[in-house]
Design brief:
Layout: E1 13-17, E2 22-26, E3 75-78, H1 102-106, E4 114-120, H2 134-158, E5 164-171, E6 183-189, H3 194-210, H4 214-225, E7 229-232, E8 236-239, E9 250-254, H5 266-287, E10 293-298, H6 306-310, E11 315-319, H7 335-338, E12 342-343, H8 347-356
Parallel strand pairs: 2-12
Antiparallel strand pairs: 1-2, 3-4, 4-6, 5-6, 5-10, 7-8, 8-9, 9-11, 10-11
GO molecular function, one term: UDP-glucose:hexose-1-phosphate uridylyltransferase activity
Pfam family, one: GalP_UDP_tr_C
Organism: Henningerozyma blattae (strain ATCC 34711 / CBS 6284 / DSM 70876 / NBRC 10599 / NRRL Y-10934 / UCD 77-7)
Length: about 375
């Protein structure tokens, strides 16, 4: 056993993720190792404002027929290649048996219905969230809110199989984005997805044990410690979570308890738009490239019960893969797939680097 003093910036340790009841290995000394692995090709900002071949640009034909209106702000339409559908046959019922067979015990299946939507953030083909104005991004947040409300109403009044709305964005080809027109997606399922369901369980258990909200306490702690805070405004906090997996992973969390976008005030819509823009400008400025990420909203289910609302706290996860430069990407392989997630710099180190970056002026504006 070494007699040297433990250094969190140089020595291996594990950190607990209370949202998912899991652990992550932190190995900050590994950031010093040379890199001879795969390198990404950074995207170049040379796309036109309008692309006649793009299936998402205003007025263009879509892949399966029909055409887009000549929209001038955020535009939502039903996904032509939906991952889940409303109209499909019911899964055959399995015969009741007093003794479950191994197949019944181990090979479980259930049908799932729902609907999927594409959310075009802007009519301009050549912009991304950090290049949009705060009013334009406020329209995006407003569109999320409208979609949430409309689907809640459809479920309640028309018996549509809608329970949870997962809104997300995959930005950049490194994250599997198949069309670079600025857009996100919304998948609405009749069940709560596993990742969100696990968070609800931990929120419930934490509240039962401590009689307080997990994320409410976490916001309070981060405001006290400050070492992982990247940005802050009246309504939201951006932190690199203590338990972050991805190199520059962040979480936007509401300062006050707000269960979903349906409860947002106009002030919160504007504040979320503003802090999203500032965070993503920092991301792009990090390596002077269009910084890829997967981003998603976690919030209360549609038509949530009192208990579900009580266990919900609005937050957003940003999972960007870039590690050392615009070309070096973090992969979850080997130990991360077979053991547990691992990262090469601490959350505090990542937060400090993001905090120092300009969040107001995009690097392309300086060229």
């Amino acid at each position: 056993m070494s007699s040297a003093e433990f250094d969190f910036t140089d020595h291996s340790h594990r950190r607990y993720n209370p949202l998912t009841d899991s652990w992550i290995l932190v190995s900050p000394h590994r950031a010093k190792r040379p890199w001879l692995g795969q390198q990404e090709t950074p995207s170049k900002p040379n796309a036109p404002a309008y692309d006649p071949k793009c299936f998402l640009c205003p007025g263009n034909d879509r892949a399966t027929g029909g055409s887009n209106p000549k929209y001038e702000t955020t535009y939502i339409f039903q996904n032509d290649y939906a991952a889940v559908k409303i109209d499909q046959p019911d899964l055959p019922l399995q015969p009741e048996s007093s003794e479950k067979s191994l197949k019944d015990r181990l090979l479980k299946v259930e049908g799932v219905r729902g609907n999927c939507f594409v959310i075009c953030f802007s009519p301009k083909h050549n912009v991304t969230i950090p290049q949009m104005s705060v009013p334009e991004l406020t329209d995006v947040v407003g569109a999320w809110q409208t979609l949430y409300r409309d689907l809640s109403k459809e479920a309640a009044e028309n018996n549509k199989p809608f329970k949870y709305l997962q809104i997300f964005e995959n930005k950049g080809t490194a994250m599997g984005c198949s069309n670079l027109h600025p857009h996100g997606q919304a998948w609405c399922l009749e069940v709560v997805p596993s990742e969100v369901s696990q968070e609800f369980k931990t929120f419930h258990n934490y509240k039962h044990k401590h009689n307080t909200d997990l994320l409410g306490d976490y916001v309070k702690l981060e405001l006290q410690e400050k070492s992982r805070i990247v940005l802050e405004n009246d309504s939201f906090l951006v932190v690199v979570p203590y338990w972050a997996v991805w190199p520059f992973e962040t979480m936007i969390v509401s300062k006050e308890k707000t269960p979903n976008v349906d409860h947002f005030t106009d002030k919160q819509k504007g504040d979320l738009a503003s802090i999203m823009k500032e965070l993503t400008v920092k991301y792009d400025n990090m390596f002077e490239c269009s910084f890829p990420y997967s981003m998603g909203l976690h919030q209360a289910p549609l038509n949530a019960s009192k208990e579900e609302l009580d266990n919900s706290w609005f937050h957003m996860h940003f999972y960007p893969p870039l590690l050392r430069s615009a070309t070096v990407r973090k992969f979850l392989v080997g130990f991360e797939m077979l053991g547990e997630p691992q990262r090469d710099l601490t959350a505090e180190q990542a937060a400090e680097r993001l905090r120092k970056l300009d969040g107001k002026t995009h690097y392309l504006e300086k060229l």
